[in-house]
């Protein structure tokens, strides 16, 4: 699915392996200790090689980690990208502990990092929807709203945002929510 925005910007939903898609920046669903892990985090470290962890070691030494709702940047090692933005999504408890604010913060911070580093294309996983337990439908709405808001901005320098979904069922949820929001208003501009 492709959603077009003013100025030639676009948001694409794709089922695939985030480590194999060529973009300027790949977002990693990281933990606050920036120590690697399973899921997307493990896949990115395996595909990118040890250079990424060496940079994270330096960040940990200087900053101690990364707070939930934010992100830090490293090089991409062997990945088909220039940068990896390590976003720390919230562990979902019950939705009343600022989880939505923190999740939106991850997407916003990564788009800011993309602009700061001159990245025109960026790929996101479905942050916090794996082991962190964020309900997929709720996470999809937050991701789509946050990304669309930035793509509508005249100051946005990112041209192409890809949401790389792990499987067809996640894709179905994200595309259904995107379609409902677009259809209800008649244009991608109000996604």
Mean pLDDT: 94
Helix content: 40-55%
Total domains = 1
- Portion in strands: 15-25%
Name the CATH homologous superfamily. Leucine Aminopeptidase, subunit E, domain 1
Structural class: alpha/beta
Main beta sheet: 7 strands, mixed
The number of helices is: 5
Overall CATH architecture: 3-Layer(aba) Sandwich
What is the end-to-end distance?
Answer: 14 Å
Task: Evaluate the radius of gyration.
Answer: 15 Å
CATH topology: Leucine Aminopeptidase, subunit E, domain 1
Characterise the protein shown here.
By secondary structure, the protein is an alpha/beta fold. It has a single domain (2-190), classed as Leucine Aminopeptidase, subunit E, domain 1 (3-Layer(aba) Sandwich). Helix content is 40%, strand content 19%. It has a seven-stranded mixed beta sheet, with helices on both faces. Strand 6, helix 4 and strand 7 form a beta-alpha-beta unit.
């Amino acid at each position: 699915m492709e959603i077009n925005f003013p100025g030639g910007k676009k948001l694409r939903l794709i089922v695939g392996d985030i480590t194999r898609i060529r973009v300027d920046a790949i977002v990693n669903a990281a933990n606050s200790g920036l120590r690697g892990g399973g899921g997307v985090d493990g896949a990115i470290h395996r595909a990118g090689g040890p250079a990424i962890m060496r940079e994270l070691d330096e960040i940990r030494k200087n900053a101690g980690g990364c707070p939930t709702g934010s992100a830090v940047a490293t090089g991409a090692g062997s990945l088909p990208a220039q940068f990896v933005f390590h976003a720390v999504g919230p562990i979902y408890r019950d939705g009343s502990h600022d989880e939505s604010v923190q999740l939106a913060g991850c997407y916003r911070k990564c788009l800011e990092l993309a602009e700061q580093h001159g990245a025109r294309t960026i790929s996101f996983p479905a942050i916090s929807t794996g082991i962190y337990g964020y309900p997929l439908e709720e996470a999809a709405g937050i991701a789509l709203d946050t990304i669309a808001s930035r793509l509508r901005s005249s100051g946005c320098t990112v041209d192409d945002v890809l949401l790389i979904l792990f499987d067809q069922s996640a894709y179905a949820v994200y595309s259904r929510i995107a379609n409902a929001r677009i259809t209800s208003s008649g244009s991608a501009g109000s996604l």
